[in-house]
């Protein structure tokens, strides 16, 4: 019996669901739909609103549950009757399935092309999910998953790539562009041969059972190896083939004795299943390698039900691709490949609707909604459970904007936002997981404070804490659960869980309080700078102020101690905290030299915290550049994250300061001072995903200085980023751990100015 | 129980056998050895002797007979103890086999490299057996076998070629030269997978049983076809794949109901075996096609126990190669591929002996000894029989000379000796088989006459007639039994059977008689020509005489009637038989024009019959050219065939005529008149296999006219041959059938002169 609870946790938000698409397979069915969800503040048409958002739900369930799933959907979705539902099918009896869906849901069923859907779905996920792609290294026991991003820089394209689908058979498709693909090869040896022969040989076609058997089996008892054929005196030099290479699959089985043993001995049955698996995966690997011999891409993605995150299959396919291509090709896998065809079906349906005036999901960026994804959605290979309903889920949220790699990233160096990879850096992972565990209760206190009027706040905060701690535990076991484990993901997940439980912005009140305080103090700070005659000295002082502002941070434990420990932790006290020069990283002089040599005529500043940081640190710094005749754009987050200022808050702050400062008011009116948002909602900054409007602006305004401020944006991420224009990375180290890592002390200063780095040898 | 008789007919000539080599396979063993045999007159060191010849024996027998075969050999071979025997093995338990051979024969066993042996053996057979290679066209019910020769012209090389061995696994080797080869690919899917999985699935690994099942099965019940997956509305344009293409082998078997059916229903078991066969052969075809994508050869030879002349496998492999290569490659098969490794082993052993001073078999040409080959050796695929010993045999005779393509063949046109292909020309085949059947008793009479002193002659002649008629019956059923069926083969086979029964030259006496008669008449014929003043008229008359001489032929029924009908059929009477000009083909004037324009300064004449033909036709014709200052070489057969003059006989004749004619005597002394032999022993002339000494001579002497005389050499063969120098084809049509075919009458004359035909458009 399925419990409604289990289905509910997979098939969520059905009441406002639409755009259904089904992918009907032999054993599993995937259904995809979009729904409207209540969401935190967002920007629509340049106005701050509290609005609904769009979420994409992808659910994968056993074929046998189709009737129950259809009934469940039919009972909950409003206005579904008469709508068109896209489907693909590789099921032999797809007509019966289609009839069931059509009759239960009362919809029109439109068959869409399987291959087109796979391509559309793959394009969608490659464009929207960072770390969608990985290579699998079985022999690296610490870290078997190595994730890759197709769109690291504005110069990257996901095309061309090659998609190998291992289903009943195997097909190889070269994808040249969004809708431009060609079938370049295939084979009749695939999952059909594996399951069909397994069924005939041992009476089971259950993939989980078979793969467990294969893991345990020893193919050398079944296959003829090169050394079996050529004898113990075989000389490897002759053919260049290793002696333990399989010369002939099942080569030992035609022997009478052997065949009798197999019937009786479960060990031999395991050996046979392993041999069968290797026969198929070697065949796939060989044909793919040979077909790709002349292809100019190493972007080789495997999908299909034979592959689907099964370690033994990924291992054998990776081996075969490497072997047959003589190391020139590498097998890549996709974390969410199960959903490609169903997502592609929905994309096709939406494209058709777009022609009728609806919005195309491909025109927006989407974000993986970790908090709503099941284990598989988070890429944790798992063994079967006893759960009655084994639905597995991927959810994505529409960003309502299009995000692109930041156009000023250097084309000469591959961009990786993260300074530390928590998958491979075990010490760093331990530190961050512990920090996150310790922080959750403090966060929950803030969250409850932010909704003092809500009687459910405390209860919801408890659930948040429990869920987040569970997730952190999951990451201790399987650090690859979100792709590359990094600080960004840990923080994003926390935000998502808070939002999932209606805490849209736990620091809301705190931020308001500090912004108001800082705005009132701004004239004093500005006056002090204005009183200085020398422009260079003024800018030096403003830069020191930029750093002092960065001391204020509710995200850093050491600072929270300071801020909570005294009645008022003033801006002047923060300036006093900044150590004497030379700083840990100190290229202030070079930065000033270049500025007064006429550079930096158009600058963009990625800001960090609310309150003193942005108001008393960033704004006076920007104001000095305005005096020098430069254009300035201040870039905040779009969405809330800790006490970081959001675009909505920045708008309010700028309106306030404009009333108090004539230069700022005039600059804003004239457009030499602008505010923008990055599109993000994280204490970190991922320059692979920047609001396309900001991307257009930095090109249009010929930005020649990128300033990145704060620990999350300039140290945890982007510390090693290279730009095609000069950049200034400015932050104060506020955690003991990072100070130790960077060879400094608490409150050490990083003021790292770098000229054009298109040529990395500079 | 094996009868000694059965073993005796396979393992022949053991008493003088040496150079043993074994190829030990999983199910069959191949043994190869050479032996000395008594033989018809031969040329050794330019002297006519009656000598022994060397024969190569290749025998293929079931693995289970190894002990009996070894005992049989041990009992019969003299001086075997302590010799070295080469072997290759792909048997899992080769050590036990090797021990058995070593201990029973008392020999040293030397393991030689499997791949080297395959290459050496293939090179040997490609170089020595015409029509070794064929393509298989299952859908051409009249003629499924199309034979090819690798060495058609002096410009051809057998290299490079690609050898695909489908044994337990599959390997692809590119062969660039005699000992230069490289492994370029392979696969684990081959015979091992076929037999191993078949054994596990249905309990049998018997190839004959399995192939019969596969012939009867329907894989569409087992495999998922493209149309099964994409549904009935599948659009072929999308992927470019036909709807009945196998998308996934065994794709329908994972279904529970199906698996149960297979257990109980023999029909489904057949379907599974067919599916398995197609899975393997498609896989082999695909991998080979992909590996050869960049190879610059279409010489693609399949061998290995999975291939071995099995029609269904050749059919599916041919289909797969064509499909996967998109028609750019064609699968070729080898008639005697079973023996490659064993022959190669012997070649390697002989090469080692050569270093110790023995003769290398690769330095000589070899001829397929049809009369000693079993069905398989003659390439007749057969179903298993009840014979106790199922040995199958190939025999080759050493020519003791090296034969090469005639160097004056035009490089611009592919050479095919045969004017008529009896495989595809059913009417011609019927005519020739009937002619041969009818002729055998006349031939036997001549043979008995030639050995009047022998008391066993009549009995032996009866056996010859019986055997030859049996062979002709076999050819009616399976015309591809010797490769391309043609007049040459029918005649060669008859010669071989006579020789096998100690009739080394049935027309010996007849030829002697006629030569003596003609020699005595020569002065008269010469005097008549010498009496003519005009050189051009003289050459015209001599050419007419050349044609008149060709009327004398014991091979033509119509002429035999003439010759036996009257007391003396004189040369003058033959001249009278020649019709008035213009002849059926008449370029006499052009021939004369060119001669008297200064061409034809070095001529070679391929002669035909003994007696008047060569003595009164060819010699006076040659004598006219000697008068014109040209060099002349008269080329006869080396070995007896009908009443054709042999080299030994020609030597005698020339000695006689020299005593009677001063000009001839002087020319012979000065070397302007020479005699040579072609190396052949057939009424036809195959210019692909000419004694290399003659090949060297025609180049050294700058031969600028090739004269080919007689029906067998100029009409049945070579009528369409193109040369790089002028040629004259001269013959009288002496059979009604050929006259009808050529649009003439009996005794119609062909006098076909062609200038340099290197450019076929001339």
UniProtKB/TrEMBL annotation, chains A, B:
Hydrolase is among the record's keywords: yes
InterPro entries referenced in this protein's UniProt entry, alphabetically: ARMT-1-like_metal-bd_sf, ARMT1-like_metal-bd, At2g17340_3_helix_bundle, ATPase_NBD, Type_II_PanK
GO terms under biological process: coenzyme A biosynthetic process
Pfam families in UniProt: ARMT1-like_dom, Fumble
Cofactor(s), names only, from the UniProt record: Ni(2+); Mn(2+)
Keywords noted in UniProt: Hydrolase, Manganese, Metal-binding, Nickel, Nitration
GO cellular component: cytosol; nucleus
Subunit structure: Homodimer. Interacts with PKM.
Function: Phosphatase which shows a preference for 4'-phosphopantetheine and its oxidatively damaged forms (sulfonate or S-sulfonate), providing strong indirect evidence that the phosphatase activity pre-empts damage in the coenzyme A (CoA) pathway. Hydrolyzing excess 4'-phosphopantetheine could constitute a directed overflow mechanism to prevent its oxidation to the S-sulfonate, sulfonate, or other forms. Hydrolyzing 4'-phosphopantetheine sulfonate or S-sulfonate would forestall their conversion to inactive forms of CoA and acyl carrier protein.
Protein name: 4'-phosphopantetheine phosphatase
């Amino acid at each position: 019996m399925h419990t409604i609870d289990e289905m509910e946790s997979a098939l969520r938000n059905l009441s406002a669901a639409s755009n259904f698409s089904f992918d009907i397979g032999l054993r599993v069915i995937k259904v995809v739909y979009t729904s409207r969800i209540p969401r935190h503040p967002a920007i629509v048409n340049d106005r701050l609103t509290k609005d609904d958002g769009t979420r994409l739900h992808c659910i994968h369930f056993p074929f046998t549950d189709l009737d129950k799933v259809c009934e469940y959907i039919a009972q909950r979705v409003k206005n579904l009757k008469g709508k068109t539902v896209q489907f693909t099918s590789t099921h032999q009896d797809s007509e019966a399935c289609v009839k069931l869906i059509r009759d239960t849901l009362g919809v029109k069923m439109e068959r869409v092309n399987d291959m087109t859907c796979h391509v559309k779905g793959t394009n969608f996920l490659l464009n929207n999910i960072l770390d969608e792609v990985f290579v699998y290294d079985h022999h690296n026991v610490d870290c078997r998953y190595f994730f890759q991003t197709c769109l690291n820089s504005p110069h990257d394209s996901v095309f061309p790539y090659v998609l190998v689908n291992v289903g009943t058979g195997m097909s190889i498709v070269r994808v040249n562009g969004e809708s431009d693909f060609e079938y370049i090869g295939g084979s009749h040896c695939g999952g059909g041969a594996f399951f069909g022969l397994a069924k005939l040989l041992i009476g089971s076609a259950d993939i989980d059972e078979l793969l467990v058997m294969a893991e345990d089996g020893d193919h050398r008892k079944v296959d003829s190896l090169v050394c079996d054929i050529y004898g113990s005196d075989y000389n490897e030099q002759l053919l260049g083939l290793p002696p333990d290479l399989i010369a002939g699959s099942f080569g030992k089985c035609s022997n009478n004795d052997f065949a009798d043993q197999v019937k009786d001995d479960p060990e031999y049955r395991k050996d046979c299943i392993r041999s069968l698996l290797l026969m198929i995966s070697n065949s796939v690997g060989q044909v793919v390698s040979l077909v790709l011999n002349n292809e100019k891409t190493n972007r080789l993605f495997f999908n299909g039900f034979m592959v689907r995150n099964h370690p033994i299959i990924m291992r054998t396919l990776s081996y075969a691709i490497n072997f047959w291509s003589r190391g020139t090709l590498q097998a890549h896998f996709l974390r969410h490949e199960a959903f490609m065809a169903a997502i592609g079906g929905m994309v096709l349906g939406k494209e058709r609707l777009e022609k009728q005036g609806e919005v195309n999901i491909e025109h927006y960026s989407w974000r993986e909604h970790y908090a709503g994804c099941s284990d598989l959605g988070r890429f944790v290979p798992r063994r079967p459970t006893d759960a009655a309903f084994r639905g597995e889920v991927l959810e994505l949220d529409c960003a309502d904007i299009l995000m692109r790699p930041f156009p000023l990233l250097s084309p000469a160096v591959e961009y990786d936002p993260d300074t530390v990879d928590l998958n491979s850096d075990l010490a760093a992972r331990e530190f961050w997981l512990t920090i996150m565990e310790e922080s959750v209760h403090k966060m929950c206190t803030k969250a409850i404070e932010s909704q003092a009027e809500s009687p459910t706040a405390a209860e919801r905060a408890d659930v948040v804490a429990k869920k987040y701690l569970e997730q952190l535990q999951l990451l201790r076991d399987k650090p690859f659960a979100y792709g590359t484990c990094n600080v960004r993901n840990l923080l994003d997940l926390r935000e998502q869980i808070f939002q999932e439980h209606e805490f849209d912005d736990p620091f809301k009140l705190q931020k308001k309080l500090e912004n108001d305080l800082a705005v009132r103090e701004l004239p004093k700070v500005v006056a002090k700078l204005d009183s200085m005659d020398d422009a260079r000295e003024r800018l030096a002082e403003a830069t020191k102020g930029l750093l002092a502002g960065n001391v204020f941070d509710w995200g850093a434990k050491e600072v929270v101690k300071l801020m909570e420990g005294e009645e008022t932790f003033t801006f002047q006290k923060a300036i006093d905290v900044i150590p004497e020069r030379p700083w840990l990283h100190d290229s202030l002089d070079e930065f000033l030299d270049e500025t007064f040599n006429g550079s930096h005529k158009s600058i963009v500043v990625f800001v960090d915290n609310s309150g003193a940081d942005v108001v008393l640190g960033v704004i006076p710094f920007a104001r000095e550049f305005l005096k020098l005749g430069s254009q300035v754009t201040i870039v905040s987050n779009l969405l809330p994250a800790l006490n970081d200022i959001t675009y909505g808050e920045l708008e309010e702050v700028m309106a306030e300061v404009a009333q108090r400062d004539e230069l700022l008011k005039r600059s804003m009116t004239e457009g030499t001072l602008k505010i923008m948002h990055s599109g993000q909602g994280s204490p970190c900054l991922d320059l692979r995903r920047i609001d396309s409007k900001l991307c257009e602006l930095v090109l249009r305004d010929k930005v020649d200085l990128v300033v990145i401020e704060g620990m999350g944006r300039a140290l945890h991420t982007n510390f090693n980023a290279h730009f095609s224009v000069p950049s200034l990375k400015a932050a104060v180290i506020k955690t003991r751990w990072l100070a130790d890592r960077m060879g400094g002390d608490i409150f050490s200063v990083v003021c790292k100015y770098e000229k054009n780095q298109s040529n990395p040898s500079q």
